[in-house]
Amino acid sequence: MTRRTNEQWLADLTSNGLAQSQALSDLKAVIERGLPYALSPYLSPADPHFSALVQDIAQETLLRVLDRLDTFEGRSQFTTWAQKIAVRLAFTELRRKRWENVSLESLLEDPDKPPPPRLSASSGLSPESQAEAAELVGQVEQIIAEELSEKQRQAILALFYHEMPMDEAARQLGTNRNALYKLLHDARLRVKARLAERHLEPEDVLAALEGR
């Protein structure tokens, strides 16, 4: 494989013919060599889908890199930048596969619904603060159950309690991302208003429901 500087990677990938073809081949080899280290904690290399996933993500990364060459700012090695794109694509695909056979209906029928993950990390709180947090979560859950529309309730439970990906939630709710964003925005405004009426501080809860 040819060793290249950042400038040489950019020059070869924006050229035509043999130089670009060789650069793409070399970059694909770099990605295929690095991806298994990033993926192995989440998917066993012995999994029959592992090799195919690496191949698919490497190919998708090449397309994404070519499309975003003008965004490379040279703050790192070009191959490091490309590898980060590959890892993000791989994690997105792993999350998608995790939810392939999980229905929103089955999640919403689960009686053991967990609290939003950002609100459940209370190990560093005093017993008094944990009790206050539990009370606040209880108030929010009451508002969600009683004050929101059924579709708003489903969206909040899917996204912030069960961490379903936005695209998958939109698909199962029969809508699109933009409409789902609007739905969540309206739901958060209603939750915030109801908390204010009860003289409760909503910032931490709303931050969790906004994914901050």
Keywords:
2 domains; about 210 residues; about 70% helix; Rna Polymerase Sigma Factor, Chain: A; about 0% strand; mainly alpha
Commentary on this structure:
The longest helix is centred in the N-terminal third of the chain and has 22 residues, at 18-39. This protein has two domains: 6-98, Rna Polymerase Sigma Factor, Chain: A; 104-209, no CATH class. The model has no long low-confidence stretch (mean pLDDT 81). It has eleven helices and no strands. It is an all-alpha fold and 212 residues long.
Task: Give the arrangement of secondary structure elements.
Blueprint: H1 6-13, H2 18-39, H3 50-67, H4 78-98, H5 104-108, H6 117-120, H7 127-147, H8 150-161, H9 166-172, H10 177-197, H11 203-209
| Total count of strands | 0
Spatial extent as radius of gyration: 23 Å
Total count of helical runs of at least 4 residues = 11
Portion of residues in beta strands equals under 5%
Distance between the termini: 42 Å
The domain count comes to: 2
Structural class based on helices, strands and sheet pairing:
mainly alpha
Question: Can you tell me the overall shape?
Answer: elongated
Order of helices and strands: HHHHHHHHHHH
Short description:
Helices cover 69% and strands 0% of the residues. The protein has helices at residues 6-13, 18-39, 50-67, 78-98, 104-108, 117-120, 127-147, 150-161, 166-172, 177-197, 203-209.
